[in-house]
Amino acid sequence: MSDSESVFEQPEAEAVTVEIEPDTEPAAEPAAEEVEEPVKPKKKRKPMSDERKEQLRQNLIKGRETSLKNRQAKAKKKGTLKKAISLEDQEKEEQALEIAQAKIAAAEARKEQRDAAKHARTEAKEAKDLAVQLKKELDELKAERAESKKRKAAIKAEQAEKQKELDEKAAAAQASAEPVAAPKPVLSGRALSRLMRGL
């Protein structure tokens, strides 16, 4: 057993009383010396009965067992408790670990395939939406272009009518009006100086 159990089995030593001798030196220098406090004598314990000692031993054993269980449970939670594993158990664990890793890899591959398919579906949907949007914009542009052509044709028709009216008015005015003399040519500076020299 441990050292603490041996404490209960041994009788305790009796307390020793110390007698203090009176100082023979004069009391003139009490401040210079350290004042010693009187030592209190230890009280004697009552002797324990054998039943009480046995009860304390049983409580001690029970407490140690409980403490050990608590420490082991705490260590098991933390994963610090080391177990002695046989070779067969190690092989079984390795096989189980390989199977688990294979299952995990297969699950990850399935997840990646699902993600890739989902991504492809998303891209296809986005492409389809983009195609629909571009088609709408193209239709709008075609409609605008057709309207623009109609406006231009209408404007050209109006301009042609106005030009026709102007031509008719000009022809009517020319027929009714007297011939207008041709305007005199305007001489430039050089032509004017040559003309002057020639005179």
Secondary structure: elements and pairs:
Layout: H1 3-9, H2 50-78, H3 87-176, H4 189-198
Question: What does this 3D model show about the protein?
Answer:
The chain is mostly helical and 199 residues long. The protein is 68% helix and 0% strand. It is built from four helices and no strands. It is elongated. The mean pLDDT is 80.
Report the mean per-residue pLDDT as an integer.
80
Poorly predicted tracts of residues: none
Number of extended strands: 0
Strand content: under 5%
End-to-end separation? 157 Å
**Element-level helix/strand string:** HHHH
Instruction: Tell me, briefly, the overall form.
Output: elongated
Largest sheet: none
Class from secondary-structure proportions: mainly alpha
Helix content: 55-70%
Rg: 62 Å
Count of individual helical segments: 4
This entry's quaternary arrangement is: single chain
